[in-house]
Amino acid sequence: MASFYVENFGCRTAQADGAAIEQQFRELGLDRSKSPHQAAIVVLNTCTVTASADQDARSVVRRVRRENPDCQIVVTGCYAQRAPEEIAALPGVSLVVGNSHKHRLAKIALGGRVPRALSDPPLVTISPLHYSNSRLFVSDIFAHTEFLAAPVFDAANERTRPNLKVQDGCDNRCSFCVIPYVRGRSRSLHMDAVLREVNVLVSSGYREVVISGINLGRWGRDLISDTTGAVLRFEHLVRAILNKTSLEKLRISSVEPMDWSDELISMMAASPRIAKHAHVPMQSGSDRVLRLMHRKYRPWHYRGKIQKIYAAMPTAAIGADVMTGFPGETDADFEETRQMINDLPLTYLHVFTYSPRPGTPAAAIRDQVPVHVARERNKILRDLGEKKKQAFMRSLLGKQLAAITLNSHDGDEADFTEALTDNFLKLRLYGKHDSNRWIRVCVEQVQGGSLVGVAD
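Now predict its structure.
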């Protein structure tokens, strides 16, 4: 039987899609190859959030074709949904499967080789077969209702912190973002399915699960409660995981500012079973720029949410996504962003330089910021973010934290175990410890980007 290999690009949601694609191939009896060089079918699950993400995908297509010329290259994901013809024109690409058809990718790739009992009605390609012998399977993403997900296990820490996608798509229309056009409408994994997946992971021995989505805080808005008949909200899911599973630690990934309700903040602060980690996308601290971005909050809204989170959980990790170089961003706008970051109790930043995406309103704005200016601003914010992270780590010296053990190593001076704290900091723990254990740690030092501590 042929072997397959899936290479993922981009966000946690894409990683979850990749895990589900692997599951599709396994259910059809295929084995996963250890590398793309040895696989008969190579699936590239792409990202398109920036121009560099597109370039990365094209580079990998060329590399796979060069190193494994006999394999079938299948390109899927967000780039495939956005620009299928562009990808199909690349030499070596056999199939382009958009997000609209990703739930059937393995059967599409195998074609007539799928056992009859497992086959679906035939698909119809949307394009003539003249793109380097490629076939395209892409349709209207807004008509797409399938939910594709499987737990993702980090290759380095696959025995400790699986990521579970519970939401996909987005109903927002930020002017810079192409994601709604390649992911479709917001849709949620049903609560019963989430609880079933979490319970399976718990019974398999996992002690922390990360829940994620494209717009996670919108989970449930497309679902109705079986008991009350009311629309579900993200808080209902979090409470159900606490009440109906024995999961030791739930970690919540990125949630938009206005979805950080008082109830969610209180629940996180009160429960030792929820990691003290809040990631709250900011994008800009300028009211004018936020309006141009079509973001649904103003700087004072954002500031208020961060202050509430900090007041409830003073030692929590509080992170933000920030964009520099958005079209029309002036020096004064950037200074408002820098000042707000400096003033708020943020503990880390993810800083991005604006990248124009075809078809988005922002790409049509004439007042584009010069690339060198956007990159200079990026560096200023990255340096500020590192300064705040170091200050946060130093504030924890002498304190006790909960941490989950990851991997053990033999060091030059002493053995140590990699760990991740409840509040999302890397930690080097003296001595060798079994992985996948929550332990109490006393923080003794800060070394570079990590804490150093001993088991209490």
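The longest strand covers residues 400-410.
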